[in-house]
Design goal:
Blueprint lengths: L1 H14 L26 E4 L11 H5 L2 H7 L4 E4 L10 H13 L12 E6 L1 H11 L16 E7 L16 H6 L4 H7 L12 E7 L18 H4 L9 E4 L9 H4 L19 H10 L21 E8 L11 E6 L4 E3 L8 E7 L1 E9 L2 E9 L4 E6 L4 E7 L14 E7 L6 E2 L13 E4 L2 E2 L2 E4 L3 E5 L7 E8 L2 E8 L6 E2 L12 E3 L17 E7 L4 E4 L2 E4 L4 E4 L2 E2 L2 E6 L7 E6 L7 E10 L2 E2 L3 E5 L1
Parallel strand pairs: 1-2, 1-3, 3-4, 4-5, 5-6, 7-13
Antiparallel strand pairs: 7-10, 8-9, 8-11, 11-12, 14-15, 15-20, 16-19, 17-18, 17-21, 19-20, 21-22, 23-25, 24-25, 25-31, 26-27, 28-29, 28-32, 30-31, 32-33, 32-34
Helix pairs in contact: 4-5
Length: 606
């Protein structure tokens, strides 16, 4: 009976992530107009609630609303208990989107931008909303525009928690469990990762647990450091504090996950508290948050280890039941991965560096390799045949991960084709290569084909989230690619995406160099990609999104923007060089279109 009671208590602790308390008047009541200030309103999201009758703002976030009010920010609360019946996290993401869409200022105008602070499962609700993940039907329907500017994740189990493993009491706990299909799909929804749609984000995670959940110093009593880390998104965006997932002293202490005097990471009781200082600093654009707590490089676990999440597919990209999965480091250390559902195997702790992954399904055995970065949880697909890693604008790398209609993209991966072929700027005859590229099932033109890279053109009519497939004689692989109206990227003379731009003078088509600089009044012909869809007029394809060009900080008035005649996927902009640009052999030049700013290249100006 004692063991049974202890198990019941452990289950209760997993459920009781939050506790009740009085609400504060600084919160804007649901459905009420939002007072307009000079700063975006801040929406708080709570985590999993065992008993929704006790759910409220202060039970999770203490006096955070008062701290932000003194800083000139309005607070709102999205309580996941407002959706009855503990629906799946995907459905909560949809509800959160509706919540944001219904926010209005006192003057009746919609709230077009918010900041977010999310505790535990609340962070997964935000990520589900940004990706448009659906519980049934079409897997992902990303919202065309998002209203989220900045996100502070507090103890969010991005890659799950072993404390919830196998409980299966409701859809939310199943999805929160390490190794769930929900977490793997969310981690790989856009080109094999999650870029948070480009929202500015940080993670604040705790290592104040006793170690019973994993090991001392490696968890907050519920979530392992590697699971809470935001390394999959961007480096140096994770801070570690000596806090527990929730306040100690209750059931979390009874079962030994956190000490009785442990402090919960989200329970703000003063403006001087570390969590409060990080939130205020990050939301207000100061760098103070970077000096509070530990960064990943300073933490003994995150500086040397990462996490792994592995699934298995056939050479034709069909999901396979995963019988076994193991990893081996370059120093010979090996580990059998946890495999709770024979679908997604995982480990929260494995040495960073060159790693070999072995998987099996029936008689099929696969061995693959990767370099596991420190402080990062990697989601890995084990399969034979072609394997796509990324599909990026070919002119330069970009973030967030998008491709524009009509843009030349570089598809990177392994086993993409059997041989290398290049068409010298024109599409390859399809029959010369064993590789084909499809977008939503339709073949697209190829410019270059090799084992690890294919250059292809995204169709002009592509929109939303498209399915990109590489197929060859060894099999096929598909990833999702999110289309943006424009993703301008300037071509450079050395192909690196930096340095001298690929540009000519219109008068004589001579290349712009330090020995042949531009002068005020010259018409510049700038070559780039990613201007997006076009409309044909008078024999030319004009970009639907009108771009701007900036040289040396001054506007270069555009006279033409669209496809370069005769070269599918290649764009050009003609603009008149303004007077007043300081003479320089490398004056910075960049393009803005559709709300996206290109890479910065250089042109010589005299």
């Amino acid at each position: 009976m004692e063991g049974s009671n202890l198990l019941d208590l452990a289950v209760a602790v997993c459920l009781a992530l939050l506790f009740g308390g009085p609400a504060f008047a600084q919160l804007i009541a649901p459905g009420s107009p939002v007072p307009r200030t000079s700063k975006p309103p801040v929406v708080f999201l709570n985590g999993y609630q065992e008993l929704c009758s006790g759910s409220n703002f202060a039970g999770t976030f203490g006096m955070a609303d008062q701290v932000l009010q003194s800083n000139g920010e309005v607070s709102l609360f999205f309580d996941n208990c407002s959706s009855p019946g503990k629906p799946a996290i995907e459905d909560l993401g949809v509800s959160f989107g509706a919540f944001l869409a219904n926010l209005t200022y006192a003057d009746g105008t919609p709230v077009d931008q918010v900041d977010v602070v999310a505790h535990s499962m609340g962070g997964l609700i935000v990520r589900s909303y940004l990706s448009g993940k659906q519980f049934t039907g079409t897997p992902f329907i990303p919202p065309p525009t998002t209203r989220v500017r900045k996100i502070v994740f507090l103890a969010t189990p991005h890659f799950g928690t072993g404390v919830a493993l196998g409980l299966g009491l409701d859809a939310q706990l199943t999805e929160l469990s390490s190794g769930s299909r929900f977490l793997f799909d969310l981690a790989t929804w856009n080109q094999g990762t999650d870029d948070l749609r480009g929202a500015d984000a940080i993670a604040v995670i705790g290592n104040g647990g006793t170690g019973r959940a994993t090991m001392p110093g490696f968890d907050d009593g519920v979530v392992a450091l590697t699971s809470g880390s935001l390394g999959f998104y961007l480096p140096n965006r994770t801070r570690v504090l000596p806090y527990c997932h929730v306040n100690g002293g209750g059931l979390v202490t009874v079962v030994g996950y956190c000490d009785a005097n442990a402090k919960g990471i989200a329970d703000i009781m003063s403006a001087t508290q570390d969590t409060a200082q990080i939130i205020v600093s990050f939301l207000n654009g100061t760098t103070d948050w970077q000096t509070i707590g530990q960064g990943t490089a300073d933490n003994p676990f995150l500086s040397a280890n990462g996490g792994l999440m592995v699934t298995m597919r056939s050479e034709n990209d069909d999901n396979l039941p995963l019988d076994t999965a193991s990893a081996q480091s370059s120093n010979g250390q090996s580990k059998t991965l946890n495999n709770p559902n024979h679908d997604v195997a995982y480990t929260d702790l494995f040495p960073a560096g060159p790693t070999i992954v072995n998987t099996s399904s029936g008689s099929t055995n696969l061995t693959g390799s990767l370099t596991l970065p420190a402080g990062v949880y990697a989601a890995v697909v084990a399969k034979g045949g072609p394997l796509i890693a990324r599909a990026l604008p070919s002119a330069a790398s970009t973030f967030p991960l998008n491709v524009a209609p009509g843009e030349i993209m570089a598809i990177y991966g392994t086993n993409l084709a059997a041989e290398t072929m290049s068409a010298g700027g024109l599409p390859l005859p399809q029959q010369l290569s064993d590789a084909q590229v499809f977008v939503n099932g339709n073949a697209v033109p190829l410019y270059f084909v090799s084992l690890n890279q294919i250059n292809a053109v995204m169709p002009d009519d592509a929109s939303g989230l498209v399915k990109l497939t590489v197929q060859n004689s060894a099999g096929k692989h598909s990833i999702n690619v999110l289309i943006a109206p424009a993703v301008p990227e300037i071509l450079t003379q050395d192909g690196s995406g930096a340095g001298p731009a690929s540009a000519r003078k219109a008068i004589d088509e001579s290349v712009v160099t330090a020995d042949n600089p531009l002068h005020a009044g010259d018409y510049l012909v700038l070559f780039l990609s990613g201007l997006g869809a076009t409309t044909q007029m008078n024999g030319y394809d004009y970009a639907n999104q009108q771009p701007t060009v900036t040289i040396g900080g001054l506007d270069c008035p555009v006279s033409f923007a669209g496809r370069a005649p005769g070269y599918p996927g290649l764009d050009q902009i003609n603009c008149a060089v303004p007077a007043g640009i300081p003479p320089s052999s490398s004056s910075p030049i960049y393009v803005t279109s559709g709300g996206r700013v290109s890479n910065t290249a250089a042109v010589a100006v005299q």
